[in-house]
Design a protein that fits this description.
The protein has no helices and eleven strands. By secondary structure, the protein is mostly beta strands.
Amino acid sequence: VQLVESGGGLVQAGGSLRLSCTVSGLSSKLHFDDYTVGWFRQAPGKEREGVSFISSIDDEKWYADAVKARFTITRESAKSTVYLQMNSLEPEDTAVYYCAQVLTSWYSFIPNQPRQYDYWGQGTQVTVSS
């Protein structure tokens, strides 16, 4: 299974970026819609933290308090891709952003801890200048 992120970069405070995470290599018995997919981020010297996740059940979503009302997560099943639209970016959003996924059926809620996810992308750098 491969998760490939794209869309990171350098942006000024107040600007926007859209991250993409495309999933490939799933077995023939499992499909993109069997998974909860989302984003973590890790800033230098800090622990990896959950940012936003989208479940395959009714597209239920979870957002960290720090990004609510600024970030929007969506999924496009036909492209096996999850997007994170990031608006009103702040210098505090600077981090490496990682895409991750886990089978939706493993939890009765949307997990938001790194140890709860078993497939990861390589990460994409987001830098917000002040």
